[in-house]
Amino acid sequence: MTLVDSRPVLRIGPLLTIPNYITIIRTLAAVTLGIVALVSGSVALIAVAYGIYWLGDMLDGLCARWLGQETRAGAVLDIVSDRACTAVLCMGLVALVPDVSLVAVVFLPSFMVLDTMLSLVFLCWPVSSPNYFHVVDRRVWALNWSPLAKAVNTAGVIGAVAFGQYSVAVTVALAVLAVKAWSAVAVARLLARDGRA
């Protein structure tokens, strides 16, 4: 699939694809288990719910690429589903482990607002998802959607929390916030440059 050819790239669907089924199943499973964890007071279940979310998130992306089923609708579904999982699991974690509250205060608004807007901005260009934003701007892509950036942006924060390193988690979350703020300014300039603002 040629990523700059607007015909296949601008294809919205189909919506009923194997990767999208995986996205829906992992979201329902992670959110449901997160709520059960909160009600039962189980940090272990929150950890399992995070595992389902992350494994499912990796699996739906891999399947989309392997099966040639990457669509813009699937990318948006993935982005929205990530926010549903993160909102429920992060708030559940705060309720069960109040020491992570400061981490959540920094990380959650950054992920839910700035990262959501950045992740959806791919829709302004003829690319199939944020994974291909390097076609528009390599620096913004490298800082936000490259495999390394994806790992550090979320897993860095959650990994530090998992090891009880809350000050490290806050530091990583602040660094991610700074990257997202810089990226938002860069994307605003790209939109103006390309006449898409």
Automatic annotation (TrEMBL):
Pfam (any one): CDP-OH_P_transf
PROSITE patterns xref list: CDP_ALCOHOL_P_TRANSF (PS00379)
Which regions span the lipid bilayer?
Answer: 24-55, 102-127
The parts of the chain that form a coiled coil are none
Q: List the GO cellular component terms.
A: membrane
Q: Which UniProt keywords apply?
A: Membrane, Transferase, Transmembrane, Transmembrane helix
What GO terms are given for molecular function? phosphotransferase activity, for other substituted phosphate groups
Q: Which GO terms describe its biological process?
A: phospholipid biosynthetic process
The protein's matches in InterPro entries, at most eight in alphabetical order, are given as: CDP-OH_P_trans (IPR000462), CDP-OH_PTrfase_TM_dom (IPR043130), CDP_ALCOHOL_P_TRANSF_CS (IPR048254)
Q: Describe the family membership recorded for this protein in Swiss-Prot or TrEMBL.
A: Belongs to the CDP-alcohol phosphatidyltransferase class-I family.
The protein in question is named CDP-diacylglycerol--glycerol-3-phosphate 3-phosphatidyltransferase
